[in-house]
Amino acid sequence: MSAGLAGRRSPPGGDGALRLQILHVAGCPNLDALRHRVERSLARLGLSATIEEVEARCSSPTLLVNGTDVTKRDVAQHPSCRLDLPTAEEIAAALLPVAGLWARMSKVPACQAHDSKRGM
Fold first, then answer.
1. Rounded distance, CA 114 to CA 3, Å?
2. Which of 5, 8, 85, 86 is the most exposed place for a label (fewest CB within 10 A)?
3. What pLDDT sits at residue 109?
4. Neighbours of 24 (CB within 10 A)
5. Contact by Cβ (8 Å): 70, 108
6. What per-residue confidence (pLDDT) applies to 80?
7. What is the number of alpha carbons within 13 Å of residue 110 lying toward its C-beta?
8. Count of CB atoms within 10 A of residue 105's CB?
9. In the chain, where are the structural domains located?
10. Nearest to residue 70, comparing CAs of 18, 20, 15?
11. What's the rounded Cα separation, in Å, for the pair 105 and 61?
12. Low-confidence ranges of the chain (pLDDT < 50)
């Protein structure tokens, strides 16, 4: 299943593709929360991307940006419930360099630190 999330601009460079995948087990209770965090992070950064959702034997849910887990952990090959969802800061830190925005932004937007306190 894929869901398109529209923002204001596509990431620069290469073919303009930003590859996002959410790996999850069937019925994962944390999938909606991660979808929401990713959607808000993309919107705040003004990016557009398609998110591919993949049912897999993994720590669920896991967010991959261009094949790398945003939490910098190894992707587990056994089904388990992941209680340590990526924070807004981890998602932004993974998206910014891939999108080529580090040169234009010196830090993660302050609004994200505020959102993480509310459990975004």
1. 26
2. 8
3. 54
4. 23
5. no
6. 83
7. 0
8. 12
9. 2-117
10. 20
11. 29
12. 1-15, 102-103, 105-106, 110-120
Classify residue 26 by its DSSP letter: T
- Nearest CA among 65, 68, 79 for reference residue 27: 79
- Rg of the chain over CA atoms, in angstroms? 14
Structure tokens at 56: 């897999």
* CATH architecture observed for domain 2-117: 3-Layer(aba) Sandwich (3.40)
Cα–Cα distances in angstroms (integers) from residue 107 to residues 23, 48, 49, 65, 112, in the given order: 28, 20, 21, 19, 11
Residue 51 CA: distances (Å) to CA of 36, 78, 107, 109, 113: 12, 22, 24, 22, 24
pLDDT of residue 102: 41
CA distance 112 to 86: 13
Q: Are 85 and 33 in contact (CB under 8 A)?
A: yes
